[in-house]
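Example S7 (structure tokens).
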């Protein structure tokens, strides 16, 4: 595959972009838990934080602020490791409190350096947590790396779906197949009375998937524990692997594998919200 022209990616079998058209839809949370779910399935997995302006992977993995990366050789760095995942982020190479006030070409150059100078070793999957939108960073990844497919994360609300459409169209333009849609915050269940409410609308992800002839990889509820676990650097798949939420992430990972292995059409994951 084309990745073999990049020495650091020579032994990476599949690179999957997790993307969204807009921020605030749970893309990075999905990327982290998807990576951990793949790891739980016995695969070797890494995650690349491609959001140069707003890196969050380190925080979500509970990485210390003073991470010191170890050189692999004279030209490459070994990635940070936590929970069995290999991870790289611009946050590991800079002060986490200092914003990256860079123009697009500078951000793209920084990302390119991370791709080239990180030695991942043997991986079955490298998950790329993309920044929101359809700009320079997305094009850099698409042109530099041979992506196996993309996963689009959205919420059911109309404005999020409109932006998700743009993300799908972008990947179509660069000939990257879309494995499917992840619909976050699809249903809220009151922890006190059990009342169910589709706060952000209903079936938006399903309709979008049908429109583009793709799949719904998972529908995820609006669940407080997902946010709480991420905030303390203990993602749900790691901290509560037997929970119903973790099982949904595992199903998401299985559906992704099914798509890549023979380009199969996975079964949509339905949550009963009981």
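Recovered sequence:
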């Amino acid at each position: 595959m084309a990745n073999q022209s990049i020495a650091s990616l020579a032994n990476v079998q599949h690179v999957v972009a997790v993307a969204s058209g807009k921020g605030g839809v749970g893309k990075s949370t999905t990327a982290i838990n998807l990576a951990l779910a793949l790891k739980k399935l016995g695969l070797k997995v890494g995650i690349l934080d491609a959001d140069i302006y707003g890196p969050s992977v380190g925080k979500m993995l509970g990485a210390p602020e003073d991470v010191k990366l170890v050189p692999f050789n004279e030209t490459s760095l070994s990635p940070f490791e936590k929970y069995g995942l290999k991870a790289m982020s611009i946050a590991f190479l800079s002060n986490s409190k200092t914003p990256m006030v860079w123009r697009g070409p500078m951000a793209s150059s920084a990302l390119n350096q991370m791709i080239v100078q990180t030695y991942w070793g043997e991986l079955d999957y490298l998950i790329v947590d993309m920044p929101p939108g359809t700009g320079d960073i997305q094009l850099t990844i698409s042109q530099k790396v041979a992506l196996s497919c993309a996963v689009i994360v959205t919420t059911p609300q109309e404005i999020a779906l409109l932006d998700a459409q743009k993300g799908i169209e972008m990947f179509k333009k660069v000939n990257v197949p879309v494995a499917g849609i992840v619909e976050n915050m699809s249903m809220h269940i009151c922890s006190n009375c059990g009342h169910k409410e589709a706060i952000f609308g209903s079936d938006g992800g399903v309709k979008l998937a049908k429109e583009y002839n793709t799949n719904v990889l998972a529908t995820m509820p609006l669940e407080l524990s997902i946010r709480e676990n991420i905030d303390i650097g203990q993602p749900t798949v790691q901290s509560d692997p037997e929970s119903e939420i973790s099982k949904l992430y595992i199903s998401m990972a299985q559906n992704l594998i099914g798509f890549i292995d023979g380009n199969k059409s996975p079964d949509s994951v339905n949550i009963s919200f009981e």
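Notes on this example. The CA atoms of residues 12 and 70 lie 20 Å apart.
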